[in-house]
Design brief:
The protein is α/β, with parallel strands linked by helices. The chain has helices at about 20-30, 45-55, 75-95, 120-135, 160-170, 180-185, 190-195, 220-230, 260-280, and strands spanning about 1-5, 30-35, 60-65, 100-110, 140-145, 175-180, 200-205, 235-240.
Length: about 280
């Protein structure tokens, strides 16, 4: 497996001012960095690719949809804007020679919904993502659907729901991106949910239940790694934690979950490497 970390361990918005994070990843001895594309205007593909190539660090990308780009909106113009935005993210991902783009890309993040998603909601999402998936195929990019908690999405909260939407889309480059922080709320069992993803699993966020350092909380790590071993997973696993308390992202983190990003990374790597070794996933 490839082990990586999300840039949120150090920053809440990516820009050329944060390029040194790529150096930190290289120095730590892990394989990849996940960069958020929420602010495409501050993402410089050429600068990222140049730095990553010089250090031999792999990069993956992710994002979330907001109200003006909600592909489940009843407004066809908003759905079109959402598809256009996702295609721009695919372009940015391709420009850094990456093959992975994922996140809450199936509906508005924090949508103020008061009723369950309708059949039309599912169809809007599937139809829009099918168009994006076909576009991404031209650049050999996989799309990952990340189920999140009920407080952050009303459409995909579980692996089972993600697999339902993937079946509706019907393209083989659309896969599952699991996250133990969200699974801790929504899944009955870490092991069973991971096994259900099977060969359609493309990315896995290894997060503690409080978003702190992996191995210091309540997540059933043995269940997670036992399932990963049994499905023969060879893909990416990445730590995602928040040490930067700011006002420009909805993480609901009001206290330090780790002394700093460097400590989060060091201790997290130590724990996850031990679990990989235990389950022969090195």
């Amino acid at each position: 497996m490839q082990l990586g970390v999300h840039a949120y361990a150090w920053c809440s918005q990516w820009s050329n001012d944060t390029l040194d994070i790529i150096n930190k990843v290289k120095e730590s001895g892990i394989d990849f960095l996940e960069i958020p594309l929420m602010c495409l205007e501050t993402f410089d593909p050429e600068a990222v690719r140049k730095r990553a190539d010089s250090l031999d660090v792999d990069i993956v990308t992710s994002t979330v949809l907001l109200g003006e780009t909600d592909i489940t909106s009843d407004d066809s113009d908003i759905r079109k804007k959402g598809v256009d935005y996702l295609k721009k993210c695919v372009d940015a991902t391709s420009a850094i020679d990456s093959d992975s783009f994922s996140g809450v890309i199936y509906s508005q993040y924090l949508k103020p919904a008061v009723t369950p998603p309708s059949d039309d909601t599912w169809k809007y999402s599937a139809d829009c993502l099918r168009e994006v998936a076909l576009y991404a195929k031209k650049s050999n990019i996989d799309l990952g659907l990340e189920p999140v908690t009920r407080y952050e999405s009303y459409l995909l909260n579980t692996c089972k729901q993600a697999l339902k939407l993937i079946d509706m889309i019907g393209e083989d480059n659309v896969k599952v991106h699991l996250d133990t922080y969200h699974m801790n709320v929504e899944e009955k069992d870490f092991y069973e949910a991971t096994k259900a993803a099977g060969k359609r699993l493309m990315h896995y966020h290894l997060c503690e239940n409080d978003r702190g350092i992996p191995g210091t909380g309540l997540v059933d790590w043995d269940g997670v790694f036992r399932a990963l071993s049994e499905i023969g997973y060879k893909g990416r696993v990445g730590m995602e934690g928040f040490s930067d308390i700011t006002e420009n992202m909805s993480t609901w983190v009001w206290r330090k979950l780790a002394p700093d990003g460097d400590t989060f990374l060091k201790e997290g790597i130590k724990f996850i490497r031990s679990m990989m070794k235990k389950y022969n996933l090195e």
